[in-house]
Task: inverse folding
């Protein structure tokens, strides 16, 4: 069973704080991991991809991957109200089979 | 990344009718995917569409209900056949960018309401 688990939230943080979003996956053979942001009524947009253990930073976003623990996370520093959205974790299995988590709804309060 | 458009952006349809959704990409891509996102839910893959071959359907989705065409490397259609209210959903196409290790980019989606 290829599963991707996320805490559905909602997660609420004050403006300027760090938002931490977590995701676990079931297949140890997975090699590619993605975070998508989805605003209400819009389609998902790619924020980050990560393929190796450790941290990957892009602006205010940091993706963290731990393959031994089958865990991937997204940190958003200096959270802004415009970051309020649903964040989808996606894991690529074999043969272009991408599975999505249920998403975590984030609210950043001014 | 590729620019993806979908038509129609939204529609309201009657039970028992069919709707064909178009997905157009501004560059040639090998893999195109069709997803469904029901209200408040995550994305569920319906099928993978390769140019020149039959679409590959996921468990729970069948060709008679969701026929797919992929006539060339920039275009695909998904038809939702004999619709019922349970088919009310957002339908999304996506394309794979192999230069970026199979990263997928999504079109804007088609919002379907079946009465």
Result:
């Amino acid at each position: 069973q290829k599963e991707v688990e996320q805490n559905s939230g909602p997660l609420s943080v004050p403006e300027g704080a760090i938002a931490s979003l977590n995701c676990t996956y079931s297949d140890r053979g997975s090699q590619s991991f993605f975070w998508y942001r989805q605003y209400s009524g819009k389609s998902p947009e790619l924020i980050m991809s990560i393929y190796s253990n450790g941290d990957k930073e892009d602006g205010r976003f940091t993706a963290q991957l731990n393959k031994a623990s089958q865990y991937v996370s997204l940190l958003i520093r200096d959270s802004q109200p415009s970051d309020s959205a649903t964040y989808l974790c996606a894991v690529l299995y074999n043969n272009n089979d991408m599975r999505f988590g249920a998403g975590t709804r984030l609210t950043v309060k001014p | 990344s590729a620019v993806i458009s979908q038509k129609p952006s939204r529609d309201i349809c009657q039970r028992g009718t069919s709707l064909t959704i178009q997905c157009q990409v501004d560059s040639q891509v090998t893999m195109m995917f069709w997803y469904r996102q029901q209200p408040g839910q995550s994305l569920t893959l319906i099928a993978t569409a390769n140019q020149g071959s039959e679409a590959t359907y996921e468990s729970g989705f069948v060709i008679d209900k969701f026929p797919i065409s992929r006539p060339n490397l920039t275009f695909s259609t998904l038809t939702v056949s004999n619709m019922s209210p349970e088919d009310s959903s957002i339908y999304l196409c996506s394309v794979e960018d192999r230069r970026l290790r199979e990263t997928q980019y999504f079109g804007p989606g088609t919002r379907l309401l079946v009465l």
